[in-house]
Write a structure and sequence with these properties.
By secondary structure, the chain is an alpha+beta fold. Helices cover about 45% and strands about 25% of the residues. Helix 2 crosses helix 3.
């Protein structure tokens, strides 16, 4: 009896051992092929899915780039005219963005018998500043047509900015009226680096009358200055991107170099002065891309009475290499 009991126990142990062995072997025999198949499928599908996603991103990026390019072209058309002859005066202006769109702007406006001259610099750069540009130009033009005195026009722009917007864009602005009967410039400078008057006798004057930057203080007050432009005299208004442009040694271009660059082309036409000065800034920067937008407006009273009619042009007659040089600088940043 005892012997049978032992035999039964041994048989049970053997049977349990066989079942355990089979239960252990089954996963080893059936599961690995399924896992291998799943991994192979993942590896096969993953490159295709990634390529499809990459193509989608590239298409969206191209659309965005095209939209920004078109917006930049609209900005260029709004800043106009880029070259103009008005009675005894030659006027030339240009603005270059370092990030596609620019917060800088300039404008020449016919205001009855006078000519309005505008140069502005919205704080920041790129899309954020560029979005505000059109709004700021509209405010300035409306105020210029409503208020005949430059200081009143600038104060009106500041009030509207502070009242209508929760966080108005801080903007530096130079606004002037050119009066041909007296050959005088009545101006208000709100926070821009002081524009310069280069006299025919080689002296230089700075236009500092005005007030604080726009959008900071609603009750800010502004004053104005008046200066006469004699034959051969020239006005340079500019954004701080010119004087603060740095070279590889981290030196700034500064006011002294700007004055020297303008004096080197004394007696040249307004557009020659414009591009020669911009070229001097970029030559100083060398391989360093400008960190801020560059905007320059040149107004020159001719030494002889041209008595010409006003003419507008979107292109300058200056040599093309200098224009290409500036464009390449923009493309490096872009």
């Amino acid at each position: 009896m005892a012997t049978k009991t032992i035999e039964v126990q041994n048989a049970v142990r053997k049977s349990s051992s066989n079942r355990a062995t089979r239960s252990i072997k089954r996963p080893a025999e059936t599961r690995p092929p399924r896992l291998a198949k799943a991994k192979a499928s993942t590896l096969t599908d993953s490159p295709l899915a990634l390529q499809q996603e990459l193509d989608t991103v590239q298409r969206e990026h191209a659309k965005l780039q095209q939209a920004i390019y078109e917006a930049a072209q609209i900005q260029r058309r709004l800043c106009a005219p880029r070259e103009m002859v008005w009675g005894d005066f030659e006027i030339a202006g240009e603005s270059f963005a370092v990030r596609h769109l620019t917060g800088d702007f300039f404008k020449v406006i016919q205001l009855d018998s006078t000519l309005g001259l505008v140069l502005g610099d919205i704080a920041g750069k790129g899309l954020t500043a560029g979005i505000w540009q059109t709004h700021m130009m509209d405010l300035v033009q409306r105020s210029a047509r409503t208020h005949p005195h430059p200081a009143d026009a600038v104060a009106a722009v500041n009030r509207e900015l502070c009242q209508d917007l929760g966080e108005p864009p801080i903007t530096a602005l130079f606004f002037a009226r050119l009066e041909p009967d007296r050959n005088e410039l009545v101006y208000c400078n709100a926070g821009l680096p002081a524009p310069l008057i280069f006299r025919g006798n080689k002296s230089v004057e700075s236009l500092e009358e005005g007030g604080p930057m726009l959008g900071a203080l609603e009750e800010a007050t502004y004053g104005s200055g008046r200066v006469r432009l004699n034959p051969g005299d020239m006005l340079l208004a500019y954004s701080d991107g010119l004087t603060e442009c740095r070279n590889h040694q981290d030196d700034e271009f500064e006011m002294q170099r700007l004055s020297a660059a303008a004096k080197c082309v004394s007696g040249a036409s307004a557009n020659q002065v414009l591009f020669s000065t911009l070229a001097a800034v970029l030559d100083f920067a060398g391989s360093c891309t400008p960190a801020d937008d560059l905007t320059l407006l040149v107004v020159r009273r001719c030494e002889t009475d041209t008595r010409g009619t006003a003419k507008d042009s979107n292109d300058f007659s200056m040599t093309r290499p200098r224009i290409d040089r500036v464009d390449r600088s923009r493309q490096v940043t872009n």
